[in-house]
Every structure is written in structure tokens, then in C-alpha cells.
Amino acid sequence: YNLGRGGAETMLVGVLPELQEYRNIVVTLSPVNYFEDELVCDELICLNEPSLLTLPRAVFKLKKLVQKYKPDLVHSHLPQSNFAARLSTPAGIPLITTIHTAISEAVDYKKKYIRFLDRFTYKYRPSKIVAVSKQALNDYFTVLKLKQENAVVIYTFVDPKRFSTISKMPAEDKIELVTIGSLRRNKNFQYLIEAFKFLKDENIQLDIYGQGPAYDELQHAIEEAGVNIYLKGQVSNIPELLPTYHVFVMPSHSPSNLLS
For residues 26 and 54, is the Cβ–Cβ distance under 8 A? Predict the structure, then answer.
């Protein structure tokens, strides 16, 4: 969909440098790009069709690109991109769809029209399903009431070499916690705010890295609760930051092998 710093996007950017023997063309629906020079590909193309209402126009543009480049393989990530890829890729070109979360917990899939579009496009153009966990795989076919076939699990990965540098040790005079994720309700950061209400007299701090639609809601809740939690925004040096904390916490409602 775009190149914001979510788990799906981070995985894509992380794997592309390992595929340099191929010609890799990255196509997005939205111009948002927080990776900049980190993205290694032969060509980056933005369709500038971020709205679901303009999906037909995105499909038309993507069909033109497929006809022009004649790819050996099309691989899509995230719902709206999956819909466009299925409606644009001819049967003669292998199509892979990666499912990054348990969709029963995903906010987008609470909407009936998203479930309808996913089910319809899958039946129209069946793609090979790659899920990041068994839970995500089973959940996808169960929620959409589809027969599970041509599907595999490939677990989320990280590059351990990126986490070898320790910039500084955590402070000794207080306990510092950290968590990372898109600021959305299903990430359950509100739970941490409630928990920290019981820790006001303790010398403990939580930093939350990431951005998303729930930023204002979370900031208001933090200020109202008067807790020692800070929204640190989106950064590009998480591997260097993590060693500076004592504890990593993960409150998410969707523990389907999250990249964090």
C-alpha cells in the first residue's frame, strides 16, 4: 500500500537486498515513504491511488504496468494492494499474497466490505497465500469462509546483525520500558496506560515508538492518566535504541508472530 514503517513494509525493505540477482519493481498505492535510501530496488512506482474508492483506477494502472514489464512473479502485501493485484494479474503470472496478521483481530476486517472484497478477489483470481504464522493462516480462511488450499507459513524474520551494536546501557536509577508498533487500537497500548496508573509512585518509564491514527487518542489518555509514558514517534534506528532499555513489552491483541 505504502512504505510507512509497519511490519509488512519493514519485512519487504529488509528482504529486497537479498534478492539483487532479480529485477525488483516496487509498486505502491500511496506516496508515503519513510524508508527513503533504505529501500533497495530497481524501480519504485507509485500509482497515487490510496483510496479504496479509486480501486478500479488502481487496477487499470497496475494492469498497464504488468503488460509493460511482464513480470515473472507478482507479490502483494496488505488488503487493498492484494485486491488490486488479484484484479490486475493475468492467470499466466504466478501471484503470491502475504497475510501479515490474524484478520479476525484486524480493524480493517471488522468492515464487511473489506471481507467481501477479499473473498471476491480471491475467488476471482486465487493466489498462493503466504502467512506469517499458523494462526494467521488458519484465521484467514476461517474468517473469509474459504477452502484452505495452496497456502504455506513462512515465519516473520529479522536480521540479527542489525542488533549487534549497543550504543549505551540502560540507566540504573530507573526502570525503562519500550514498545514498538503502529498506533492503532488493536495494538492495545491503552492496556499499558491502564497498567501504569498503578505505577505512578515507581521510578519507571515507558517509551512507545511508532505512529498511526490513534496518536491523539493515546496522547490524551496519557495526559489524563498522568502516567510516565511517552510517545516517541517514528524513528529509523530501532536496533540501536533497543539495547538502551531494560524491558521490551508487547501488549498487542494480535500476537500472530509480530515483527516487533
Answer: no
Domain encompassing residue 208:
161-248
Whether 257 has a pLDDT exceeding 50, the answer reads no
Q: Could you tell me which residues are beta bridge partners of residue 176?
A: 205
Specify whether 125 is located in the same domain as 68.
Answer: yes
What CATH number has the domain bearing residue 242? 3.40.50.2000
Euclidean distance between CA atoms 161 and 174, whole angstroms: 29
**Beta-carbon neighbour count of residue 35 at 10 Å?**
17
Contact by Cβ (8 Å): 186, 106:
yes
Residue 257 lies in a domain: no
Residue 97, strand partner residues: 76, 129
Taking Cα atoms as reference points, which of 166, 173, 250 lies closest to residue 208?
Answer: 250
Same domain for 230 and 121 = no
Count of Cβ atoms closer than 10 Å to residue 163 Cβ: 13
- pTM, two decimal places: 0.77
